[in-house]
């Protein structure tokens, strides 16, 4: 199938097997290998990318479903020679350990901070009306779909908290 989508600000016209996942399209057809195939079942979050600003597991989505959509991968978050604030915070707080889950963690955290800024409550939010506070519990709940086999969770929470203006 022929489709056109925008990835990291660049429009791509592709001819793909309609069964190709968004993750496989990114990795195998566009050579954007930052997003990882961890479980290929949507359970680990290593493949998390931003789709029109919202986080999704790219292993669970077919590429042909995204005609005309804007996709941002870890490669599209920073600029050449300049890390995004979350990327820099992950480095500063050693939130990457082996690094396999890091692209998905950072993409998910980017969208998660947008959700908090928009006032979206989570399961652990104190109430549904006030702006959610970026506590450790709030970050952990919102990032629960992204697993880290190295257990760098405290460092990941520290990095997100620094960028999101949570506890110091």
Automatic annotation (TrEMBL):
- 2Fe-2S ferredoxin-type domain residues are 1-77
UniProt keyword Membrane, yes or no: no
GO molecular function terms noted in the UniProt entry: 2 iron, 2 sulfur cluster binding; metal ion binding; oxidoreductase activity, acting on the aldehyde or oxo group of donors
Please give the superkingdom of this protein's source.
Answer: Bacteria
Pfam family for this entry, one: Fer2_2
Q: Which UniProt keywords apply?
A: 2Fe-2S, Iron, Iron-sulfur, Metal-binding, Oxidoreductase
Q: Sorted alphabetically, which InterPro entries does this protein's record hold?
A: 2Fe-2S-bd (IPR002888), 2Fe-2S-bd_dom_sf (IPR036884), 2Fe-2S_ferredoxin-like_sf (IPR036010), 2Fe-2S_ferredoxin-type (IPR001041), 2Fe2S_fd_BS (IPR006058), Aldehyde_Oxdr_Iron-Sulfur (IPR052914), Beta-grasp_dom_sf (IPR012675)
Q: What is this protein called?
A: Xanthine dehydrogenase YagT iron-sulfur-binding subunit
Q: Which organism is it from?
A: Pelagibacterium luteolum
């Amino acid at each position: 199938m022929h489709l056109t989508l925008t990835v990291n600000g660049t429009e791509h016209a592709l001819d793909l097997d309609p069964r190709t996942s968004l993750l496989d399209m990114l990795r195998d057809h566009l050579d954007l290998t930052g997003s990882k195939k961890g479980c290929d079942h949507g359970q680990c979050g290593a493949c998390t990318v931003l789709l029109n600003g919202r986080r999704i597991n790219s292993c669970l989505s077919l590429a042909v479903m995204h005609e005309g959509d804007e996709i941002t991968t870890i490669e599209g978050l920073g600029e050449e020679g300049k890390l995004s604030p979350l990327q820099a915070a992950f480095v500063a707080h050693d939130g990457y350990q082996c690094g396999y889950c890091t692209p998905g963690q950072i993409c998910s955290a980017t969208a998660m901070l947008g959700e908090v800024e928009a006032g979206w409550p989570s399961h652990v939010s104190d109430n549904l009306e006030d702006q959610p506070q970026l506590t450790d519990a709030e970050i952990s709940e919102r990032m629960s779909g992204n697993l880290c086999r190295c257990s760098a969770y405290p460092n990941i929470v520290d990095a997100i908290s620094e960028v999101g203006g949570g506890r110091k």
